[in-house]
Amino acid sequence: MSAEATAANTSDVLSFLREVRAERRAEKRKSAMFALYVLALVGAVWGVPLLRGALRIGSEIGLGVHSQVLVDALPLWSPALLALATLLIARTGAWRGPVVLDGASVAWILPQPLSRGPFLVPRFVASAGVSALLGTLLGIAGGYLIAADSSISVLLVAGAGAWAGLGTALAGTALSAFWVRFADFPTLRRMALLWSAVAAMGALPFAALLGSLPPWVSTVSTWLTPWGWASQPLTAAATGGAPLWPVAMGLWTVTVAAVILIAVRLVPGIPQETLRLRATLAESLNASIFAMDLRRARSSMRASRRDGLHSSRWPAPPRSRWLVVPWRDLVALLRAPGRLVWGSVWCAVSIAVSALAPTRSGYGPLILAFVGVCLLYLAASQLVEPARLDGDDMRRSGFLPYSSGSLALRHGIVPLCLLFALWVLGGAAAIALGMAAPGLLVLLTALPGVVGTALVSAYRGQPSFDLLVGAETAMGNTGPMQAAFWYLRGPLTLALFIVPPVAVANALGSVGPYSTAWVLGVDALLLFWAWWTARKLYRS
Would you say 278 and 100 are in contact if contact means Cβ atoms under 8 Å apart? Predict the structure, then answer.
């Protein structure tokens, strides 16, 4: 078929679709307006008070984002934060992407000899518009947090934050189109290079906090990468620095416009099979989210990703039957190195926060102890991913000669060993830096309980229908609160029993025998909870 005939057919099909889908488009516009209304209402009722609460907590623990130290380091940490946000947005192309078609379009329109651009580009523009709105709102919130309770102009900093958030969201959306168009791009080596570059950028502000850096480092950080250009208006509004911020602003505008234009040219070339897969995954993901089945939503996202690292140099299978499950878990984590990286990152941040707790006053030690415990739970939850896979598909472990409860506890061996090694190394670093805290020793004793709590979450299964329906009360339906507590019962229980001994040890300056006995008893109870949860899941 000639290009003229294809263009004519495309125009006819578009005219027909505009006519038959007019009512549906009107309903979608009403839904979009209602969503904007709800977003504005929730932001006004909850957003502003939450921001003020965050500022109040930051002032209480002495780590407020408006503190002069963090404001001075803005040229170092803001480019790293923007780069991280861009990479996370682009990574959505691994499972969703900026272009998602409905099932009817995939089944009936894509196979026809029509031009894809008129069908795909408007959806990309709509996706970019939603990302731009969210990025702008988050940028305004970030600017408000930086400027509040200080002499800095809130309007200027919030406006600069909105500009940085807008450009970051658009750039991330454009890169996600690149990700979808070239499915072979996100190889393990390339992803390792991207994450390493972001990690190197993020290491600069930490180095500045630990010791003074030459002034030229900040200058290089704001000019070396496009995210440095995006952060210069924010730096100028907050600190009065970056005198050439209009030039950087122009460079950032040109860069974002260029990647958007390139993405528009790439979108029509997205393979048909990729669009069909994204459409199927989007429908499955939406159904899982509306049913509050986060486990199925996670499985849907996992199904679209490339397989992990393949190698012939895995650890040799063990000869002892007692080491079979730890060997499987170790190989699974090595094939998904991102889990190991994030587990190490959360563990390191938990150590840093817990080490800082005794140096705060007021409610600061208690708040930091709670944050440290929650971060340690996040680290453990990354490392128990093999147990979560067994919980999602019980056929994987059907051939193993272990009961469900025993298997769950065996899944905790590798995470416990890894966390113990990471915690010992981090504790030694804290002692070397003169930041030793008694709470670190308490958390080291609590590692079995932390892993047990992560196993509880791994084997929690799917929420029941009664849990989601809830009951009608004078304060509204209890379903959302019940579902939230059901999903968060693991970390909340861990914090309830572990935070008090950590706070007491930091207050007394030592770890007493009663605290140690309490933590060991809690460890035993949480491991029993994991054993019981796994048995309950397999029996159901």
Answer: yes
